[in-house]
Amino acid sequence: MMLVDRVLAQGELTNFESRLRRRDGTVIIGNLNVRLARDDRGEISPLEGFFENITAQKEVEQELRSSEEWYRSVFENTGAGTIIIEEDTTISLANTGFATLAGYSKEEIQSRMKWTDMVATPEERFRMEQYHYRRRRDGAAVPINYESTLKDRDGANKRVFLRVDLLAGT
Fold first, then answer.
1. 141 part of a folded domain
2. Where do the PAC domain residues begin and end (predicted)?
């Protein structure tokens, strides 16, 4: 269906993304918004509309996607089990290395499990929780490198070396 036919059938066309080539050959991306106008007798008068150039916005969105892909690749391929945890100790993101170590799939871990549920003993869990909350209150008050024991899906204890720190902006 041609654009004019769509406007005639629907009365308007909103945010129709389109690429246009300028006279100088450059391509711009824009949103086309058109509405059907009628005169006093109800007859169709010229279509009214505007084209909003969103080329810069699309370029920024692409740069953001590329940057996100790069950081995800780094996170996934660190060579170490890596997780990001929330204030309530929920694991929001886990890489394959951590999933393998813990014996769970990433889908089972992410946004469903708490880091503290995997700590092997109540004493270590208490210590880890204290570190976690004190780190958020006063980062200098707790170590960033230490050892602990992780209990995997099968109940096996695994000694792990941890490096824990807050991400900028959290």
1. yes
2. 14-66
What is the spatial distance between Cα 147 and Cα 121, in angstroms, rounded to a whole number? 13
Q: How far is C-alpha 23 from the geometric centre of its chain's CA atoms?
A: 38
Output phi, psi for 74, to 5 deg. -60, -45
Could you state, in chain order, the average pLDDT of each consecutive group of 10 residues for the chain (170 residues)?
Answer: 77 90 96 88 84 96 97 94 94 96 97 94 93 83 90 96 83
- Pairing verdict, β 12-21 and 27-35: antiparallel
CATH number, domain with residue 95: 3.30.450.20
CA 83, CA 101: separation in Å to the nearest integer? 12
- Which residue type does 147 have? E
Long-range residue pairs from 61-68, CB within 8 A, at least 24 positions apart, any chain: none
- CA angle 159/108/89 to nearest 5° reads 60
User: What contacts 56, CB < 8 A, 6 or more positions away?
Assistant: none
Model confidence, pTM: 0.70
Q: Tell me which residue range forms the domain holding 147.
A: 80-163
